[in-house]
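thought: user wants a sequence for this fold. calling inverse folding tool.
action: design(structure=
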């Protein structure tokens, strides 16, 4: 279930070298295939994403809800490619942080970020965030 659910979160796009740090606005959206799993997967609400690619190939991808001034989910891990991260840790809105397994992908169209999608499991529970920024400037 884990891999097909991740594939359903977003469609692939062109890969390019990522920026060091970006913040984008958009909206978390989920297609019908993903929504079928909402009983066993926490689907983040968000309207912004912050991607912090640090030196030693580690990164943080935070999905924020600006109207609440809060980070809903923060995925942290190791960059395994220009637009792919293996998740090693997850932080929830309430501050709970623990080891996690999963992955994040940055999808691009014509070199611009269009979708950022993450799926990870922590303590036996699945967490997903999928933000569409394709209609906003980046």
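)
observation: tool returned 138 residues.
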């Amino acid at each position: 279930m884990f891999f097909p659910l991740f594939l359903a979160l977003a469609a692939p796009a062109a890969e390019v070298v990522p920026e060091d740090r970006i913040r984008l606005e958009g909206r978390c959206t989920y297609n019908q295939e993903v929504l079928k799993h909402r009983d066993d997967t926490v689907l983040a609400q968000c309207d912004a994403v912050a991607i912090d690619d640090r030196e030693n190939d580690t990164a943080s991808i935070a999905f924020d809800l600006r109207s609440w001034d809060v980070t809903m989910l923060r995925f942290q891990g190791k960059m395994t490619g220009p637009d792919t991260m293996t998740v090693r840790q997850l932080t929830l809105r309430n501050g709970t942080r623990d080891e996690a397994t999963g992955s994040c992908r940055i999808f691009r169209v014509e070199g611009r970020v269009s979708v950022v999608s993450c799926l990870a499991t922590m303590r036996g529970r699945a967490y997903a965030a999928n933000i569409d920024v394709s209609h906003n400037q980046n």
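thought: summarizing for user.
answer: Here is the designed sequence. Helices lie at 2-9, 32-35.
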